[in-house]
Amino acid sequence: MLGDSILDNKKYVNKDESVYDVLIKNTSYDIINLAVNESTISNVYSQLNKISSIYNNGATYIVLAVGGNNIMNDKNVNLDLLFEKYTLLIESIFAKLPDINLILLNLYYPLINEYNDYIYRWNKMLTSYINRNKIYKIYFIPLDIIINKNDIVFNVEPSKTASEKISFSILSIIK
Fold it and tell me: How confident is the model at residue 135 (pLDDT cuts 50, 70, 90)?
């Protein structure tokens, strides 16, 4: 798994309630979590560099969740340029590991409404990108499953219930 606190939420939930913990409890597959809380798109390159080429095969699924911190860290962000950086990251993943499957997660709406327009636009761009993509093996998990207040803690972080929703969505693809 590559990305930010959507996938590395252990700091915000009790022991054994993170996305990673729920995944390893519910599958026999090897799960490697390289995601790091507070990561931005540029940080994911160092995560990607830790993946060995032995994982370059059709049985490997990489889950990517990133972009929200870029938006929250810069209220004047140019979303088009940011999304271009995101698509370059996707291309870098496939340049390094062309035979893998990639699972993309869009952004969910936090309890802080000031980001809603950015998230709405980001998710539309991501959906359009996925629909246009005919080259890579990409799967998509829309995080509109994160809709209840109890899905979010600390205004923006995935809770225990969100961990379960995200994890079971991932498992529905890789099983």
Answer: confident
User: What DSSP string runs through 86-105?
Assistant: HHHHHHHHHHH-TTSEEEEE
pLDDT at 34 over 90: yes
Residue among 37, 38, 63 at smallest CA distance from 48: 63
Ordered domains of the chain (ranges, CATH): 2-174 (3.40.50.1110)
Antiparallel, parallel or unpaired: β 101-105 and 61-65: parallel
- Give the distance, in angstroms, between the CA of residue 80 and the centroid of all CA atoms in the same chain: 19
Against a cut of 0.85, is the pTM above it?
yes
Report the distance separating Cα 122 and Cα 106, nearest Å.
Answer: 8
pLDDT grade, residue 91 (50/70/90)?
very high
Q: Which residue has the tokens 């991932």?
A: 170
Q: Which residues lie closer than 8 Å to 151 by C-beta, 6 or more apart?
A: 108, 158, 159, 161, 162, 165
Neighbours of 19 (CB within 10 A): 28
Q: How does DSSP classify residue 107?
A: P
